[in-house]
Amino acid sequence: MTILSIIYITLAACVALGFSYFQYYVKSKRNGKELLILFILRALSVFTLLFLLINPKIKSVFVEREKPDLVLTSDNSESISHLNQENNLAEIASFFNQDEEINERFDVQNISFGSEISTKDSADFSAKQTNIFKALDAIKSSFKKKQNATILMTDGNQTLGRDFQYFSALKNQKIFPVILGDTTKFPDLSISKLNVNRYAFLENKFPVEVFVNYSGSKNVASRFIISTNGKTVFSEDVNFSEENRSVRIEANLPASQLGTQTYSAEILPLENEKNTVNNQNNFAVEVIDERTSVLILSSIAHPDLGALKKSIETNKQRKVAVKYTSENNVKLNQYQLVIFYQPNNNFNNWFELIDEANLNYFIITGTKTNWSAVQKSLPFLSKTGSNTEQDFYAEINPNFNQFQFEDIGFLDLPPLQDKFGDLKIDTDFETLLYQNIEGVSTKDPLLMIAKNNDRSSAVLFGENIWRWRTKIFVENQSFEKFDNFIGGLIQNLSSKKKKERLNIEYESFFYSNEIVKFDAQFFDENYQFDPNANLQIELKNDSLNSALDSRFLLRNNFYQVSFNDLQPGEYRFIVSEENSGIKKSGKFSVISFNVEEQFSSANFSKLKNLADKNESQVYFPDQLENLKSELLNDNRFSIIRKESTKSQPIIEWYILLFILVGLLAGEWFYRKYKGLI
């Protein structure tokens, strides 16, 4: 309170006393005890009123003790239970959570981590992956405002994320690794990495790349084996020494059977090897038959023929034959797709033959196309107009959803040429590319696809597509973008898959550390995507006698559902749409693989490097008292006393308003009682 406020309060007291004295002792002719009571009530009420008007500020001093944080960071991954360190971790956490001196000095916080961070009080050691760097980085971000010590309780075996041994803490943070697990290095062989494609083509060979590591000091020999269904399909002798600790093995395995094929890669264990779990790694490959033979049929020579052949054959599973209509030795049953290039009267018999063979076809028209012949063979397709040639630029249809493809910059590509006229299409189709004439979108198709039950067809209204391939090469020094687009189109057209209202996308196998995910699309009776569908999935594993069900969630223009932690085995599923009753079933495999069980000891060297980089040291579970002493004796972790001053105006003391009202009311009632009113 300031001196000026004290002077005002003193004057207020004098005014209150003077006013009351004048009111009851000067003006009034009465005397006695009742005047004294009235005098006191009036003086107090006037003083209270003036005191509130002066409104002095009262300052209060608050003292706050700010403790540093002690963050107990527990490894919640399966490798802790694999190394039998659950009890050690629980005892360390209990020691610091219950110690009185620690709790007097620190605010103790508990977090656990696997691939993600959790604030659960207890660990269940169920995490399938370990990301130590992510945990340390999260602590760095969350506790950057105060001094903090982090006790990192882990075996140091990280399976995910950036290498934690190079993590740099802030100046206000100190990291104390506590090592869980045996740090003794036993002789051990392990498969550290296995690389293989998820898919292989039938009757081809697929590569498998394996890295086998050795920890030990003696010269040892072993044998690497890949087997399937109990039969060895590859083997190789390998030798290791203290200098030669890693061997790369490459095997080329035959893909001789369609479907998902599971394999086991194993490095035979050494004598008395402690951890043999990491000697084996299961993997799977889905063998598919994508061999496609395409016939290009033409009556004229044109650069488009060669461009299409080269583009399609960039996929080694596809073969293209270019034939002319005058040839008689063409066997249509050898092909899955026929491309009619600029058809004319010479094509009439060929259209009849592909109808009989029920083959899919792709028509490319141009300036040499005879539209009368086209209409005769394909009554649903006609074009009326003059013989004037017209340039057509390509404009992508953003709503096309039959298959995924990249916008290769269609609007900037050279125009295609065809005859000018009005198109008439009397069948269901979907436009992939629109015609754009001199910058004006016509919404007429330049490239369209029609599906009639199990038969597909497409029409490109324009020749000189070879210029597209050339332009893309000039801009990108590669034909890849164009070839991928043509490849996707050919794959879609050569497929005999029927158009269905319910489509499901999923992998035929998953590893046990993966999320099992399903994507689905549901279409209404007009084959338009239905965002109001009610899709459910039911999973069953007969050998485990287990069943799961879940509901698909809408994600933009598709539905999705996922499952975590499925046990290895064979699963069957049924996806159903409740409103329509449409159902679809399938099966997949979950292959056993646990990366957390690949370790036989704690990673002392990385935890030591982490401690050294952050000017700390590592501890073991039997050194908790030493760690406690380090924490309590470190001056950086002292309790900080913070004083704060708060000024409060007296008018905010609402009790004074009640006192003022009480004094005035008391005076009034007393005067009334004495008959002075």
TrEMBL record:
Keywords: Membrane, Transmembrane, Transmembrane helix. The keyword Cytoplasm does not apply. It comes from the Bacteria. InterPro entries: vWFA_dom_sf. The chain crosses the membrane at residues 6-26, 35-54, 651-670. SUPFAM superfamilies: vWA-like. The keyword Hydrolase does not apply. PANTHER family: BLL2462 PROTEIN. This is VWA domain-containing protein.
